[in-house]
Design a protein that fits this description.
alpha/beta; Metallo-beta-lactamase, Chain A; seven-stranded mixed β-sheet; six-stranded mixed β-sheet; 9 helices; 13 strands; 25% helix
Length: 273
């Protein structure tokens, strides 16, 4: 499924979603195409399960062989496991945190990434794209050690990777959310478990509030727009998560079978989603 998030005469942002067969064994994810003045980039190109459908769907809007960048928020399999195939089918360079620059080759055949990786420093930067640019924003530990979000100043869309994720798929995931209160239940468990700490969330919110954001688009689930953006900022600014919720019950030497051990630590697991 392809959704047009933004388009004018020279610039377009598209979301591709629900490309993985719904069988309960793999998480659904969103992939994104940004084109400015004929120069194209994919954000979070996805895993092998999504590759064929994404390649075919993207081809209807932009010739894949002409892509300039494959941009990765971090190095999870659902972000770049298809890297070998994209490097074969295109001349694009991979843009990823310097932390993951030497790990990315593990997704490809030997030598495939040579001269084709742009390592992003922790402070981020601005990546030229056509006659515009993408802002690479620090988003470390949300949830990856080297993690970036991407702000498009033309569409004013903020692509947030695993931040803002909601557990939904199909037509529901394609419709932007404006009523945050009715949506937050689909987000809370994930964020409590995958975001590392409230301190990191507060630092990120302080940075993000400085941008004129028209839409927040995560890598899983539905985009946020309108009043939901401010409500989301308010929510995560106060969310206790990750290490905030762990105690010594989660760190004990196992003395029994895995089932018995899980039963013993259920209180701690429930607390983090």
């Amino acid at each position: 499924m392809s959704i047009e998030l933004f388009r004018n005469a020279d610039h377009a942002c598209l979301m591709f979603t629900d490309l993985v067969e719904e069988d309960g064994h793999a998480v659904q994810s969103n992939q994104f195409l940004i084109v400015d003045h004929g120069v194209g980039a994919i954000i979070d190109p996805g895993g092998n399960l999504a590759y064929n459908e994404l390649f075919l769907s993207l081809s209807r809007f932009f010739p894949p062989q002409d892509l300039t960048y494959l941009i990765a928020s971090h190095a999870d399999p659902d972000i770049i496991a298809s890297l070998d195939r994209w490097l074969t089918a295109t001349r694009a360079k991979l843009v990823i945190s310097r932390i993951w620059e030497r790990f990315a080759p593990h997704f490809t055949k030997a030598g495939k990434t040579e001269g084709r990786v742009v390592g992003v420093p922790d402070a981020g930067g601005r990546l030229p794209l056509g006659q515009s640019e993408l802002w690479l924003l620090p988003a470390h530990f949300m949830h990856s050690e080297g993690n970036f979000h991407f702000w498009d100043p033309v569409s004013r869309i903020l692509f947030t990777g695993d931040l803002g994720v909601s557990m939904m798929s199909g037509a529901d995931a394609a419709k932007p959310v404006q009523d945050f209160a009715s949506h937050v239940g689909k987000m809370e468990g994930f964020h409590r478990r995958y975001m590392v700490s409230n301190k990191i969330l507060r630092l990120w919110v302080r940075m993000a509030r400085q941008l004129p954001v028209a839409m927040i688009v995560p890598q899983h689930g539905a985009p946020l727009e309108g009043k939901a953006i401010g409500d989301f900022f308010d929510w995560i600014e106060n969310l206790m998560c990750g290490v905030d919720l762990f105690d010594d019950r989660a760190y004990q030497l196992p003395t029994s079978s895995i089932d018995a051990h899980l039963n013993r630590i259920k209180p701690a697991l429930r607390a983090i989603g």
